[in-house]
Structure formats: structure tokens, C-alpha cells
Amino acid sequence: MTTLADYCQSTAAAARTAATALATATTDRKNAWLRASADLLVKRAEAIFDANAKDVVAAPSFGMTAASIDRLTLTPARVAAAAEGLRQVAALPDPVGEVREGGTRPNGLQVLKVGVPLGVIFFLYESRPNVTVDAAGLCVKSGNAVILRGGKESLHSNTVLHEILTNELPNHGLPRDALQLVSTTDREAVGHFLKMNEQIDLVIPRGGESLIRRVAAEATMPVLKHYQGNCHVYVDRAADLDMAERIVINSKTHRPGVCNAAETLLIHAGLAERFAKRIADALRAKKVEIRGCDETRRFVPDAVPATEADYAAEFLDLIIAVKIVPDLSAAIAHINRYGSKHTDAIVTNDLAVSRRFVAEVDSAAVMVNASTRFNDGFELGLGAEIGISTDKFHARGPCGLRELTTYKYVVTGDGQIRG
Amino acid sequence: MTTLADYCQSTAAAARTAATALATATTDRKNAWLRASADLLVKRAEAIFDANAKDVVAAPSFGMTAASIDRLTLTPARVAAAAEGLRQVAALPDPVGEVREGGTRPNGLQVLKVGVPLGVIFFLYESRPNVTVDAAGLCVKSGNAVILRGGKESLHSNTVLHEILTNELPNHGLPRDALQLVSTTDREAVGHFLKMNEQIDLVIPRGGESLIRRVAAEATMPVLKHYQGNCHVYVDRAADLDMAERIVINSKTHRPGVCNAAETLLIHAGLAERFAKRIADALRAKKVEIRGCDETRRFVPDAVPATEADYAAEFLDLIIAVKIVPDLSAAIAHINRYGSKHTDAIVTNDLAVSRRFVAEVDSAAVMVNASTRFNDGFELGLGAEIGISTDKFHARGPCGLRELTTYKYVVTGDGQIRG
Known about the structure:
The structure is a homodimer.
Chain A: H1 4-23, H2 27-43, H3 45-58, H4 66-72, H5 76-91, E1 99-104, E2 110-117, E3 120-125, H6 130-141, E4 145-149, H7 155-168, E5 179-181, H8 188-195, E6 202-206, H9 209-218, E7 231-235, H10 241-253, E8 262-268, H11 272-285, E9 289-292, H12 294-299, E10 304-305, H13 308-312, E11 319-325, H14 328-338, E12 343-347, H15 351-360, E13 365-370, E14 387-389, E15 397-399, E16 405-416
Helix pairs in contact in A: 1-8, 2-5, 2-7, 3-7, 5-6, 6-7, 10-11
């Protein structure tokens, strides 16, 4: 009888073997698989909908809310978008084999720093089954074998998606075990995988903060952490107020439930009189609740009084904390104290002010006269992304194909030795 | 009364504050401090020797061997070399503020990826006191505050070196707490620091494998691991045998006790007859003990029979394991099985063979027709190094100034919002 530990061990060992083969697969083969898989997803949409329907029917028994059931549900548009995602990944440059730096040393040795895959990735995610397709595409293109562990709520959908993608691998000379879906929903399986730092090079948990914290605490290998963002917009004294309004509204209301949405607005005291009421009115027109400091409430008397907890909060909702600050230094200090080092924006036309803000705000992305919503792999030009790292180590901010790789030094000579 | 936990907490908090100030210090200030410190080390050499003499006198009571006491002992040449090291770091490019990539998106947003410090580094090291100087120079130049924890054997030496370097910081507008030396030798202090992942961004343990394993197991923040190397030289059928001999001898005997020295020699069966005895004679002339496979022993009958353990060993000594392999595939398989992914070399003049070796050997540095000894920060052009990473995550191979930094995205627009 196979125990759970044995199952996990053999899954990881198969991934390691597949990773070795996949590491040297040509870009042509990987792209051909991506494009063929995109076509197959559309061709086999009926089978996907049938499996998805089983998950949707069972969803209430898992206590899922209407919003999560909506995210779980696959529609023709969502399957087409997943297929299109694979085609976009095919169109991106291959980070494997990319020569990132290079030169010739005084002794004639040629030194190249060449992109190579990390190896085996353990990817955990929650209910949206299209993530199965996205993650598979990004991992295979970057030359990594992946062990996919989706939520129990989407097991039927994930199983058919995984089967379609995996069956297509050998047709392009790629190893089947490059993509494995954990077939058990036993939570202990996760614990087993997190102990295998000899077989697994990286864990990516994509889901709520409690999932990420649990994985970070248990993992014996590196974790690409993707915590939520407590993002700020600071409207400086030298801001164009039309631009400031546009950026605040977009940062807060374009998609309030995502990590790069703004949560706190800081306003320079010198323009509070001209701007505080104006922006409050504009935010309220978009149904945003305002929680303001005492000074804010002088101009916006019916704002809810803001607490310390509000400044630390990631509302992920139509709520914004507002604070009037005496100067740039106070704005920077507030951000570095309450922020989560994710994305922070300044609106100003003062170059010296923008230089200081950019230098002193310690965040993965610092925006000058642009919406916080631009901290995103597509928007910053990385192509697709597997997450937005809130760590400083390895990769910071959006993680695309290159962030799923490492490098090796390739040193070529004519018999050089050290003297 | 201050407890040990309080002491560690306040040390880390002071480092965090200093890191914020240091992150925006100009290159000019940092370089001025490096050059002034170099001059001061030479000027205050007598005070350094006095302190060092106390450590040397006490050394036998710590059970130190003659070789370790030699490493502990500071001489005028060693102090001069440490000072010269600081001047070399001053001459290297500053990784902070370096624009690593950049472009303009279709919507007009300028996106720059800019080097920034990691923040606070906890650096643990063993007996050589000149490491105090090296680590301080590299950390300050890369904009990181560092908490230095040397061995108890070198506490007097480290204290005076630290005092010289630290006292000079304010003269260049740099924060004193950027360099702190842990003043207690209590081992529990290490445990306290390893728990502080809010204050400390990276731990670098430099010393024996047991130190590194202890730190990796206990640390709650990333660890830059620097394990020893089990490095190989594979002499292919298409090798130039004079070159092969030169590379094998250099890789094995130039400095047998370091991580990039070769431990195993693999020989293609097709040239065993011409090469096995020849290289054995050359190695023995350098006093190297040969441990060979059965096939090797046909040509070198008095070689010690090699065991499985020999192929897995890092001898760090004048011993080499030798194996005759049927072909390139067997050589690659042997390296990927027994090696430590550190440094592996091939000697060949066959381009297709070298391409396969480079692609399939999964090591931080792959050498073609060059000694394994070149896997080193100076030799590969990084300037000084703080270690050679045996991890894949963040940095692989030699870690210089840039590997002590991360990056932020700086995005500048004219009011762009997402539609």
C-alpha cells in the first residue's frame, strides 16, 4: 500500500527527473506545446465545462460564497482567456539560455552569466482553476517542472485542465512529469512536500495571507511570498490637482480588491484647503468611505475618524484612510512605517521632491505621477506574472518568466590555470 | 538590567535605523570612508597587533591548532592586505542606484529597475580577523548595515578593528550603527538574532559546514549559504592532453583546501590508456594520493581502490578520486549525482561536447578548458566577494557587491491611470 509520504516522495522524484530533461528543451518545443495546448483548451471546452460544473455544484457544500463561486466558474470567455494567456507566454522571450552578462577577462577567459531554470517548483493555489493553466504555462516556458496543488473546490476542473496540458507534452518531446497535479486533497500532503528541500527548489503559495504564512513557516526551501499591499498615494504641494484626483481615484477604485490598490491617501498640508474636500467628494461619488485624521475632518467634517488600525489596514474594499501631513519627510516616514513595501505613489511636479521620494520610500515599486495599479507584470513589461513578490531576496515586485530562473556562470578558455 | 534578548533587539533596531540612512548615502561618502579607513588601519597597526597578541596568547586555551592560530595572527602584510582590500572595494562600481534595466512602456510610462540595498545583514564568521574588515567594507559600500559576529578566539582583534572602522563613519556623514560588532560571545545571542526577520534581511554565515547548517536550520530570514564544493574535472576524448594535465594539476593542487579545488577526475575511456598513468604520475609528483576505480587501477595498479564515499567526498586535501567513464553522458551523470553544484570543468576541443556539458551540468560555474580555481569573485570580474553561494535562489556562485543588493521599480509618468 502506498502511503501519502511515498506518494509525495515519488511525485517529487518524478518532477526532479523531468526538470533535468526540461532544462535543456529548446524554446521551439516549449512554444509549440504552449500553442497546441491553447488550441486544445478551446477544442475541449465542453469537457472542461462538464468538470467545472461538478465543482460548481459542490461549491456550497464547501461553504463558498457567491463571489468565490463566481471565480470558480469557467465560462467560454474565461477558457478563451486562459488559452490566449498561453499564446502570450509563447510569444515572450525564453529566459533559459539568455546571456545576461558577459565579457572577457584580462587572461582571455570568456565569462558568461546564462539563465537556467530553478528546477522544481511546488505551486499552491486556491479556487480559480484558470490559475492551473497560467502556472503550467509559465513554469514549462521557464524550464521548471511544477507540482500543482489546487484547492479541493476546483479538483474536477483542475484534473481535466491538467490532463489536457500534460497529454500534449510528449507530442513535443517534453517530459510528462514536468506537470503533475497533486491528486489527493489531503492537507498533510502539503506538509510532506514542504519538507523536501532536496527535490523542490521553490514554493509559490498563491492565496490568502494565512496560506502564505503557513507555507513560509513550514517550508524548508525558499518561498516566493506574495502578501497583500498597503499602498499609498501622496499628493505633494507641487501636484497638479487634476492629475492627483485622477490618480487617487484610479488607484483606489479601479479594482479595490487587489494588492496594488491604494489604501491610504496622504495630502501635503499646504494644499489641504484646496484638495481635501475636492478629493473627498470625488471619492464619495465612487462610493468610497473616507476615514480621516483630525486635520482632514476640518475640511471633510463627516469623514469617519481614522484610527491607527486604519493606517495599517489593507481594506481591499471601497474604504480609504486619509491623512494630512506637514511635509514630504512626514509622508515618507508614514509610508515606511505603515506601508507594506509593495507600491507607493507620489503626485508632484517638483523634481527634487520626486527624487527624494523615490530614494527614500523602501517599496518594491515607487510610482511618480502614475497610478499604483501599474505595479503588475504586464504593465511593467515583464509579460505574464506568477505573482508580486513582497520579499527583497531573489525577486522584488512582479515575478515573470525570468524571476522563475537562476543563472550559471559559463567560463570558456584555452587552458587557463591560476598562478 | 539589560538582558541578552534586549541587547540583541536594540542592536538590530539600531542597525535598521542606520540602514535607512545608509541606503541613500552617496557613493562619494562611502568611498571616502573606505579610503580613510584603509589609511587608518595602517596608521594604527600597532594597536591592532597589541590586541591580536592577546587573542594569539589565549588561542591554545580555545583548543586551536597551529594552522588556525596562523590564520588568527595579524602581520604587517595581512593588515596591509586588508587595507588594500578596502581601497579595491572603493574602486568598484556602486551597485546602489545602478539602473539595471529600463525602458518606456507603450503608454509613455518610464520603467527603471534600480539597485537598492537589502537593508540589514547579520554576518557570522570564524577566526580570521581580517574578515571583519572585508565584510565591513562590502556591506557599507553596498549600502547595508551589518551586525558582525566574529569568533570568540578573535574578539580582541575584532574589537579594535571594528572601533577603527566605526569611529571613522561619522567623519563622512555615515551612521555609526551601520557597523556593529556583537560584544558578547554568548552563543545564545546568535539564536536571538536569527529570530528577528523583521529587522534583519539576510544572514551570511562564513565558516564550517556545521555553522552554516545550524544557521540555515534556525534562521527565519534568508541565508546566503556557502557550502564546500565537490568539484570535478572531466577529461574528454577530444582533450589536448597537455592542457588536461595542466588543468587537473592546477585544479587539484593550487590550493587544495578551498571550495573550488577539484576532488574527482573523470577520464573518457577512449584516452585512458594514453592519459591515466600520465596524470597519475604528474599528480603523485605533487604528492597527491590517487583513489581509482577498477578501470583506473588497470593503468595505475597501486592506486587506492575508490569507494562510493570517495566520489561523494570533499577531501580539501591532496587526495583525488579518479574514475574512467565510457562517455560524456556517464561523466555528466556522475557529476550531477555526486557533485555539489559548485564548479565543474571539462577539457575538450569538441564544440558539440562542450555545448552539451555546459547545458547539462547543473552547477553554479561550468568551466570549459579552464581550471576550477577560477570560480572566484575576483577572477570572474565581480571584484571582491563575500562568499560563493551554493544556492540557486537570489545569487548563485560568487557574491560580490551587487549580490548584496536587491532592486526597486521606479515608474515615472505624466498622470497615467489604468483603463
